[in-house]
């Protein structure tokens, strides 16, 4: 199992230092799309990493044309020599419609078709067929030779989809190479809910389970850290996540659904500062990797997710030395 460095707010000026962090103790570098463009951040990092995986976790699909995403991923796959992972996600409706002024609904069918469109574009780049994709949400049928970047020696990158509910796990297994698992999860949820949905998706595509990867993002509490990985900072992050109805099924599976409702009421009344007080250590420890130091956290993650996940990354990243 691989342990990756995850950077939630990547800055271009820090990516060389992040690359050195990865080479010192991690198997790969994944960056989020939050305050900047993840493809740009990874383009900088790719010039400093020679033998590690680079990936987006996640790049937002819907604000971008499938062609734009296909080109960015193709460039990074070429620059990294075949070490890029395209992680895609739908985000939530408010962000897509109000922050990006893009179409959101229906998220699962739209994202499923998006992946098929990106793969079709890559096939056109590789010379496998002309560009002629016609779906319900996307149409791409014009690619002049001068605009075709041409084939890659290393082949197209794998595609992972961000998944939380059964429908998205199933879609990821049907059309993708892996799933990126949200931090709000437990072993029981992965075994009982995610794996059943993955099996359905793989069956549709006539594929084997060993052809599909799980990359888990974990909340991590590091005792030596007073920043994003301190216990109270993670408690606040968990409270924010658990107040969202979309994450309620994970809590319900363990009989903790009442906590989600109480947190939701706090949000409705604008009582954000007191939300974390509702989250007991018992629940926090069930969801988190807890360790005294970052090296020990990496070892603990390998032990916790052995046989469950192929890759794991932490919601927080160590400070740059």
TrEMBL record:
GO MF terms held by the record: oxidoreductase activity, acting on paired donors, with incorporation or reduction of molecular oxygen
Signal sequence, start to end: none
Major enzyme class: oxidoreductase
Key words of the record: Oxidoreductase
Pfam families in the record: Bac_luciferase (PF00296)
Transmembrane domains' residue ranges: none
E.C. no: 1.-.-.-
InterPro entries: F420-G6PD/mer (IPR050564), Lucif-like_OxRdtase_MSMEG_2256 (IPR019919), Luciferase-like_dom (IPR011251), Luciferase-like_sf (IPR036661)
Gene3D superfamilies: Luciferase-like domain
Organism of origin: Amycolatopsis pithecellobii
UniProt cross-references to CDD domains, sorted A to Z: Tetrahydromethanopterin_reductase
Taxon lineage: Bacteria, Bacillati, Actinomycetota, Actinomycetes, Pseudonocardiales
Segments forming domain Luciferase-like: 10-306
Protein name as catalogued: TIGR03617 family F420-dependent LLM class oxidoreductase
């Amino acid at each position: 199992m691989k342990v990756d460095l995850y950077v939630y707010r990547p800055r271009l000026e820090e990516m060389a230092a992040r690359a050195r962090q990865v080479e010192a103790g991690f198997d790969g570098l994944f960056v989020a799309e939050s305050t900047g463009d993840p493809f740009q951040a990874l383009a900088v990092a790719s010039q400093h990493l020679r033998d590690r995986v680079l990936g987006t976790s996640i790049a937002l699909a819907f604000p971008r044309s499938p062609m734009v995403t296909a080109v960015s991923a193709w460039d990074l796959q070429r620059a990294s020599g075949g070490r890029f992972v395209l992680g895609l996600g739908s985000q939530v409706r408010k962000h897509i419609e109000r922050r990006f002024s893009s179409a959101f609904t229906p998220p699962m069918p739209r994202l499923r078709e998006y992946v098929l469109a990106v793969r079709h574009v890559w096939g056109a780049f590789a010379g496998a067929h002309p560009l002629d994709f016609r779906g319900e949400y996307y149409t791409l049928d014009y690619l002049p030779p001068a605009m075709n970047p041409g084939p890659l020696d290393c082949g197209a990158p794998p595609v992972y989809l961000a998944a939380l509910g059964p429908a998205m796990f199933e879609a990821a297994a049907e059309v993708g190479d892996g799933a990126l698992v949200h931090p709000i999860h437990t072993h029981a949820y992965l075994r009982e809910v995610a794996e059943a949905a993955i099996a359905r998706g793989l069956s549709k595509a006539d594929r084997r389970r060993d052809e599909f990867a799980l990359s888990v993002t974990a909340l991590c509490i590091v005792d030596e850290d007073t920043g994003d990985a301190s216990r109270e900072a993670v408690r606040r992050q968990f409270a924010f996540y658990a107040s969202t109805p979309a994450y309620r099924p994970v809590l319900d599976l363990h009989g903790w659904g009442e906590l989600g409702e109480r947190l939701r009421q706090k949000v409705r009344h604008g009582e954000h500062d007191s939300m974390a007080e509702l989250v007991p250590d018992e629940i926090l420890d069930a969801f988190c990797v807890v360790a005294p130091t970052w090296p020990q956290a990496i070892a603990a993650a390998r032990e916790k997710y052995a046989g469950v996940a192929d890759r794991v990354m932490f919601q927080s990243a160590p400070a740059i030395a």
